Amino acid sequence: MTPSSPESRAPDPFVRQRALTGFGAAGQRALSGASVVLVGVGGLGCPAAQYLAAAGVGRLTLIDSDHVSVTNLHRQILFGPDAVGRPKVHAAVGALRLIAPGVDVRPMLRRVDEHNARELLAGHDVIVDGTDTFAARHVIADAAAELDIPVAWGAVSGWHGQVTVFTRESRMRALFPEQPGEDLDSCEGGAVLGTLCGQVGAALATEALKIVSGTGSTLAGTLAVVDARTGRWREIALAPVREREDGRARA
């Protein structure tokens, strides 16, 4: 076996991804040099983290203060029964290192709030918002707008899911100016389809990968909505952001 023979080369887990038209070696290099922060390692965050790690993102920061419960297991696919009671970020790191040992996965057992959001999110190329309360989402979105970091954003409620990307021109405050009276998509006691979480979480990972690799076009300016009962997606155009006199975004 010669040093240049196929048998002597290290296996390449990204060969099929690198073969994508418009992606190639440059796209893979961009991924390997990228830093992604994922907030909320739950129903959306677990599949998003799994695909981001498997795709070869260089650094993946996981932020969550919650612990795994038995009611999480039908949708939070990084965890098994042996993870119940453990911090989600620590259990997720173990699973992701088995999937993608070359990825730098960094757990942060923290809750993002208005006091620490800028500090925790700064220095990343893209934010994946997998949280399930509007209070957390607004904090993340406001910090992201100040830091000028794009946000891959998703939500799931019952049979319905939503995905978009928030940027300087398309902000969450323009879509949801104020926090709703209740979090309709919160999984605390609510009904949620596990496979739909996987579908939306995978879409979040796809948006993040397109952002960091510069491939294709993202959902910025568009809200993609799926009804799992029919399997159909529809798109809603979002109005561009204008600045109010107080500096806050409005449609």
Automatic annotation (TrEMBL):
Gene3D superfamilies, alphabetized: NAD(P)-binding Rossmann-like Domain
Gene Ontology, cellular component aspect: cytoplasm
Superkingdom to which the source organism belongs: Bacteria
Annotated ranges, domain THIF-type NAD/FAD binding fold: 16-239
Annotated GO MF terms: nucleotidyltransferase activity; thiosulfate-cyanide sulfurtransferase activity; ubiquitin-like modifier activating enzyme activity
One family name in Pfam for this protein: ThiF
Annotated protein name in UniProt: THIF-type NAD/FAD binding fold domain-containing protein
